[in-house]
Amino acid sequence: MTVTADPRAVLRDQASAVLHGNDAGGWTRASPHLYPHQWSWDSAFIAIGWAHLDVRRAMTELEQLFAAQWSTGMVPHIVFRAGPDKPYFPGPEWWDCAISPAAPPIQTTGICQPPVHALAAQRIWQLTPEAHRPEIRGRLQVLYPRLLAWHRYLATERDPEASGLVTSYHPWEGTDNSPRWDHALARIDVAKPGPYARLDTSQVGDPSQRPTDWDYDRYLWLVEQLRKYQYDDAEIYREYPFLIKDVFFSAVLVAANAALLDLADVAGAADSDRAQLTSWLDRGRSGLGRCFDWESGLCRDYDVRTGEQIRLRTFAGFAPLFASTTDGRQQEAQLQQLDSADFCGRSGFRWRLLPSTSPAEPVFESHNYWRGPVWPVISWLLWRSLTLLGCAERADAMRLASLDQIATGGEFGEYFDPFTGAQLGSVQQSWTAAVALDWAAADRDGDASAT
Ligand code: 2M8
Q1: Does the beta carbon of 222 lie inside 6 Å of ligand 1?
Q2: Full-model pTM
């Protein structure tokens, strides 16, 4: 008798093999070749994946990342942990973070990424078996003040206006070549960075899946400017040309503040910390509310330097959903948009999943990085929020479609063409494996988990 393997069990085993394969001993490479170091928000998703295999290892992932936290509270976007046999450009020399008195002794970059870490801490706790609870509770109690300091940095240094919205300094703060940054980058006409050689384009089969040299010139020149200000937030705010109120980043902070409040009892948080988190949460929600455009049903980023709104249809427009908005009318408008022909309901899409940029935008490119493809980690954040909002059916459809997308790709791709479903970018991408593990677990326990 032939026994057919359960395809979900196969996917789980493969995902687990990706995390083990990328495990560098206490921290995990974002991918084996293209991203050989420890990346900030990748690490948070990766910890969620590890939590299904070993909650203690999951905690270590976060602890290693936070060991590189700056004295300002910032968690850097990359911690350069791989040795010289794993080259990456731009590496620590380009960033030269030692010029900042706030930098830690370990080499890092001087910018940050969306604060998914509290969501990871919350998920780890949810998955901690009884026997490990005393140990994990103790470790969470140590991590909690660091998470608070991280959120405080975002709520203050990155929001001196107290608008509830986080200011992004660089396209590398999450969604590299998203068209959301095109105008702000185009205003930079002095982009002549020092000589450099890219490594990324030779590491993916097709360089048109990556940002262009025009983008890279500007990314690198912006880092030179940040270096000039010694990564000092006040200086940067005074003079630097790229300051964007990023509604997606801000929405993740809202969700992360809610997650920290949820963990407050576990961590034994003081009343003053709870009050602070509540006020950041309320401020974040109102900030997003002010950027909501009723006509389009989408939330808009804005450019701090020009004061202009960025009117583009991208995944970031769903910031209120990512933040699990409590405003019923906004929720309704967003859910309608989500399944419209501009987004998941587009005819010809392989799966009903959210593209990074709407195919209705002239700048849409189905295979190019953040300019069109579907990213499983973004789908995970949306799935989590929809679950919290009680949209169980829509959330589960998204989970199943995402699992199918990843399984069809076969190699845990970084992003996917929304029309053909082709797997793109890097393979054996750790965060893709991590969210697959979390989604696959929901099959077994019927637990959509994000409570
Ligand atoms: C991508 O960004 C890096 C730079 O940080 C790159 O293009 O080289 C982005 O997708 C980013 O969000 C992600 O954290 C990183 C590693 O997966 O890759």
Answers
A1: no
A2: 0.97
